[in-house]
Amino acid sequence: MRALAALCTTLFLFAFAAAATGPAAAQEAEPELIFKKSTVWKFLTPDHKLATYALDDPKVEGVACHFTVPEKGGISGMFGVAEELSNASLACRQIGPVSFNEKFEQGEEMFRERRSVFFKKMRIVRGCDAKRNVLVYLVYTDKLVEGSPENSTSTVPIMPWAGAEAPRCADFIEE
């Protein structure tokens, strides 16, 4: 019985520490909230919402992504302990001349955010379709035990901008 109580206490402390740390430290920039839209009204607690964010690619200047994710309300959402849904949508666009800050690996993580107290993360990864000179972004959610097949993909054809020649993404893939 004591072992069970100690285990419960340890799990509680772990959950509290995970909730207090917020989004994963690996991301380089916080996404910018554009707006939230309520989807389910809750009495005396926060509503369920869809939240839309903007995020600039930290390794590729001139590319921005917008993603929308559900955010649970209610009591669990109010205290930050709700396990968020795996749904996410993604749209990335060229917003200026493209330049690469450094090389990257195919499928490299561009952004990561915690979506539950325990082991669930949303990730945005980047790749390059070298044949077509197109950047490919994928958003998905994973869990330690079981991930989600729900995902969204967005592509950014790298185009010339203001007379400048378009760089080739293939030149910036790490081998």
Radius of gyration from CA coordinates: 19 Å
In quaternary terms, these chains amount to single chain
Question: How would the global form be characterised?
Answer: elongated
Strand content: 35-45%
**Helix-strand category:** mainly beta
**Overall pLDDT confidence:** 78
User: What distance separates the N and C termini?
Assistant: 54 Å
Organism: Microbaculum marinisediminis
GO cellular component, one term: cytosol
Signal peptide: 1-26
Keywords: Signal
Q: Any chance you could write out the topology, listing elements then pairs?
A:
Layout: H1 2-21, E1 32-40, E2 48-56, E3 60-71, H2 74-78, E4 89-100, E5 108-114, E6 120-129, E7 134-143, E8 151-157
Antiparallel strand pairs: 1-2, 2-3, 3-4, 5-6, 6-7, 7-8
Walk me through what this model shows.
- The chain is mostly beta strands and 175 residues long.
- It has one domain (2-172).
- 14% of the residues lie in helices and 43% in strands.
- The chain has helices at 2-21, 74-78; strands at residues 32-40, 48-56, 60-71, 89-100, 108-114, 120-129, 134-143, 151-157.
- It has a 4-stranded antiparallel sheet with strand order 1-2-3-4, with no helix packed on it. A 4-stranded antiparallel sheet has the order 5-6-7-8, with no helix packed on it.
- This is CreA family protein.
- Keywords: Signal.
- Residues 1-26 form the signal peptide.
- InterPro entries: Uncharacterised_CreA.
Could you list some keywords that capture this structure?
single chain, 175 residues, mainly beta, 4-stranded antiparallel beta sheet, 2 helices, 8 strands, 43% strand, elongated, disordered N terminus
